[in-house]
Amino acid sequence: MTDNNDLLQQRLHDLADELGPLPVPHEEIRHRTRRLRRWRRAGSLAAAAAVAVTVVTVSVALAARPTPMPVTAPDGPFLGWPVTGNATGTGLLAEAVQVWDSTRASGPHTDIHALLVDRDPVLLGPVVVLEGRDAQGEPRLAILTGTAEDRDALRLRADRPAPDPVTTRVVSMVSGRLSTATGIEPLDSRPSAWLFALGAPGVTGFGYHSTAVDQELVEGGGPDLGRRLLVSLPPGATPINTTVIARHAGAVVFRGPADGGAIGDAVAVPATVLTRSSDHARIQGSPRALLPGRLVATPDGLLGRITAASGEEADVELVTAASFSIDALTDITYRPLRVVGTGGNARLDQVPADANVVATNRIVTVDPAQHSDRLGTLTIGRVGTTGHDLVPATATSDLSRVYVMVEYEAASR
User: Fold this and answer.
1) Does 39 have pLDDT greater than 50?
2) Is residue 235 part of a domain?
3) For the chain, how are helix, strand and coil distributed in percent, rounded to 5?
4) I want to staple 229 with a disulfide (CB 3.0 to 4.6 A). Which of 27, 88, 206, 407 is the partner?
5) Is residue 6 part of a domain?
């Protein structure tokens, strides 16, 4: 075996001698090796950098993506939101239940759950929102507040059917009757309306605006101030002309008109426009709402007045009709005048010499359904360039949904 190994080694040496020196010198091999290592190291760094960029990009994308709005499971027919507010551990809840029970003829309420038990230190004092069943077992929602005159007196402001627990994101109310006893018009010469809103869990802030206000209000930006909102507005603000905007982590999760007013406020009953012209419209709605003489409005202001009704349909004489005429007031100063239609447009009439009416001034009218000369006025239009022509607040070119203004007493029967 040893002889064979020696022969094999000798043969290998002979082959090496036959091949001669290597065609690639050792220095070149070492150079190529170093260069290959540099390429590999650079490739590794580039790959690492690419991975890092990818991770950062994904992280930024995930950070920019808004957090989903939390979902609260409905509690049967109720919202089921957890109670919030700064007065949940006081006797305010028991007081609110007692007031709710004593101000409804339907008897004591059961299955009561509080959504908000709060004390506002600046505006209205106590504010409470309750869910519960009335004596007939119907689910209801109540809003109670204090008053500017007596901040410790809790009063029932709204008593409504419970809202849809699946789709509701905001409970809200707009009314100028929150500074006095329930249903009473304030005696102030310049009263304020109030916008109250409570958001679902996950709402972090609110925005709002109203077509009854000339100056720009918060549209939807601003800081996140929590799930509730209570602000004062001009007396002409109503649920249909006030938009509530709710946000979650900066994203808008709700935008729409306020839910309704308070006890004593006119009720805006929706109707559908069937046909329209420059002077007249025909609408369809609840027969109980369609009575001659009632005003018809949009979120922008007055559309016209019902002149005839039959069943579920009614004729509306528009502000622009040549036969239209209505008592009006200058906004803020409340100087009396009249607005008359001209057949396709409108103008001012019987303008007092001291009214000081100028272009763009807002002209409003008292809504008889409000039982008030100041609250819930409807904008008819704005003064034009000549000082006597009027640009109507509501355009008739694209109407589909309007509102008939109905007295609270009539709407509550």
Assistant:
1) no
2) yes
3) 20, 35, 45
4) 206
5) no
